[in-house]
Amino acid sequence: MPVKIYHDEDTDITIVQSKVVSFIGYGNQGRAQALNLRDSGVNNIVIGNIDDDYAKQAREDGFSPVSIEEAARQGDILMLLIPDEDQQTVWNEKIRGNIKPNSTLVVASGYNVAFNLLTIPDDMDVVMVAPRMIGAGVRDRYVQHIPYPCFVSVEKDPSGTALATCLSIASAIGATRGNGAVGSSCREEAGIDLFAEQALWPEIMAIFREGFNVLREAGFSEEAILFDMYLSKEPAEIFERAADEGFVKQLKYHSRTSQYGQLSTMNRHDGKDIREKFHHILHDNILSGKFAEKWSNTKWAAEELAKEWKEVENAPIVQADERVRDVIKPDRKK
Asked: What are the residue ranges of helices labelled H in the chain?
């Protein structure tokens, strides 16, 4: 069954224009979406943020940030746009006891809702408006009137009007232009996102790492390997053409030798080992809630992330990358 896709004509922007919209966090997504809402005629915007560089940026942008607790008390709509691993703690300590009755929670990441990490009042609507790009892209495309992909969903609807509110917000940030916003769910958004982060991209990065090691062991120069693998930006161009014209159809821009090499190898790769590994990651680590349980411990998360960064710094491809970049951009560290 095809998913529902929502366009500007499906929305009523006056709904969000009539509400007090409180942003919890003025970072990556918070700033972009707050500016987009303001430019769409939403005049009652409250920025809730701790007193840091993000709060300073909010003041420079013409807002008057308040505490997270005060923002929660004022908001008809709460835009929860702080990092996934911080949401449960902030929710419990600063938001939960200050929520306005019959308000709406909006998330841009399905993670905490999907894994039931937030205790949400019975009278609170819960919706997701999840742009599929970083905040800077959300802002730039809004200003340039360029469509961008976005997932939307209704997770809890005690008011009976959650979908209308959700689509009004999506319209105001520019997410229902062009191809429209795709109906989804927090479980789907979080599952796919975590799968890409824990299965797909790590496999791609490991392939590049081991490819570098094999080529270097064969006597090829580090400069030539890195330029051919990614410093030329050819992979970026390939992915852009894949997005525009098709995952396989982009091969028509490659040489016949390249086409044969890629197709003949891929067609005979049964993928069994990869599927088994991916199945384990998706079901045993992600959908089981095992990862979410660990990652909600902010102290553990910070320590583990620091360990992983320290370990990767010793990889030959990382050290070669640093050396080659200093050669091709000698003033990079000045």
From this structure: 14-17, 28-39, 53-60, 68-74, 84-90, 111-114, 135-143, 162-172, 186-195, 201-217, 222-226, 234-245, 256-267, 272-280, 290-295, 298-312, 316-328
58-115 pLDDT, tens digit per residue, is 999 999 999 999 999 999 999 999 999 899 999 999 999 999 999 999 999 999 999 9
pLDDT tens, residue by residue, 209-223: 999 999 999 999 999
Q: Which domains does the chain have, with CATH numbers?
A: 5-184 (3.40.50.720), 189-328 (no CATH)
298 within 8 A of 85, measured Cβ to Cβ: yes
- Confirm whether residue 313 is marked as ligand binding: no
Annotated binding residue 140? no
Amino acid at 295: W
| Cβ(104)–Cβ(126) below 8 Å | yes
Closest listed residue to residue 46, CA positions, set 28, 70, 29:
70
Confidence of residue 1 (pLDDT cuts 50, 70, 90): low
